[in-house]
Amino acid sequence: MSATTVRFRKLITTDLSNNQVNLASATNMGHRVQILMSVDDLNKFFIWYRPAGSNCAVGHFDPSGGGMANFASVLTSSLSTTYTDVDGVTNGLNFSSSILDANLDSRVRLNGNISANDFVMSYLLYKCYGSSSAVTANVIYNLQDAQNMLTNAGLVGSITTSLLTEEALSSVAGVDKGGIDAMFRDLLAADPMRFFDAAGNQIAGIFETNPQTDARGNWNFIENDKIELRVQFNFTNSVTTQGVQEPSQAIHSPANTQDTNTVVIAAGSSFVIRLQILATDTPSGAAAKAAAMASATAEELAADVLQAQEAAANAAEALAVAQQAVDAAAAQSAAAQAEYEENVQAAATQAIAVANAMAAQQAAQNAFAAAVATGCSSATIQQQNAANTAAQAAVAQAQAIANQAAATILTMRTAAEVAAQTLLQAQMAASNCAAALANAKLAISAAELAAAEAAANAQAAIVAAANVPPPA
User: Fold this and answer.
1) Please, are residues 85 and 95 in contact by the beta-carbon 8 Å criterion?
2) Are 216 and 205 in contact (CB under 8 A)?
3) Which of the listed residues 256, 281, 306 is the one where a domain comes to its end?
4) Residue range 349-402, pLDDT digits in tens
5) Domain that holds residue 418
6) Strands (E), 175-238
7) How many domains does the chain have?
8) What are the start-end ranges of the H helices in 16-151?
């Protein structure tokens, strides 16, 4: 029997949903490009405030950081360090700073410094030459013309202005309080538990129905949180590439060639990136955490020393008890062995007594038989018979004592073997206790060494943390 196919002849139709499908590439939507900013700074710039009696907490943007930081300077610093293009293509469009780092042409950056202009340079190389990692040295004549198309200050100003525009809406009446508050609400909805402490208690003022006092706080950013800003870069002038073209393939004369400019990016064009501010730790914060962790480790290891010392004390006590058991078992074994040997000696003596009784009984029996055979007087015969009977009784008594002695020997031998086994077990237990004590002493030494090293590391970490300047 072979498999077959049975077909239903009627066509079955079903409608697709009326979703509009418009697939977009990462190039069009904007690559996700990450820069770093400390958790401490982010929690100064992004705060929430709830006046007493208001309906809910509202998210705000404070570029002054409560007087403890400055958003523009911190963002400028972030734009001058490292970029990571999450959507970067190795041989295509890639905004990662490592791409321009690998370019041996120093002209890709003004004075060799990472800046916001890296975004433009990476995009231009991709559009003009197919890859942000295109070779430019000895290939492009005037690459420096693209060095200063965008400054950190220009980009920082645009971002700050946009955020402040939305911040202004945070304080107006109505439901829509702008993009800053919208980000705060998104964060609150995505992870409300970050606004509870370790004991499960909510942060005062953020969730109450009708707070009686003003309340404020930060957004509780943690490491690896991201704030995504969609940034559009507009070209106010066109970008061209220059080449040489022969107008006629039939005439091969230098006089007939002419320079040509090809417009690669037209004026008014733009490109977009999704600039992600990635929350990271600060040197001072990391140092403080390292110091706290080192101190906690030192405390744990100090507790380990106490625990090891307690274990050693318990092992020493157990060894003392085990040694007492060995001494008692040894005494009991010696006594049992001595009693066994004493009973063996007594049994041997009794065996001799049995043999002597049997010899005496045999002599009495012979004397009685002789008296009967020689026709001695009745009195003599009766006397010999009585002696024979007494001798038989003596043999029976001696044999009974010998039998009891043999049984006692067996019992005492068993008792001696049990005592010897008990002694052996006690000696093994004492040996184990001694090994445990030795191991406990080694553990104390190791724990004391680890605790000393941890204490030194903790002290060094505390000193290092004290010498690290706090976030600007």
Assistant:
1) yes
2) yes
3) 281
4) 878 877 887 888 888 788 878 878 887 888 888 887 888 888 788 878 878 887
5) 290-467
6) 215-218, 226-234
7) 2
8) 26-29, 39-45, 71-79, 97-101, 117-129
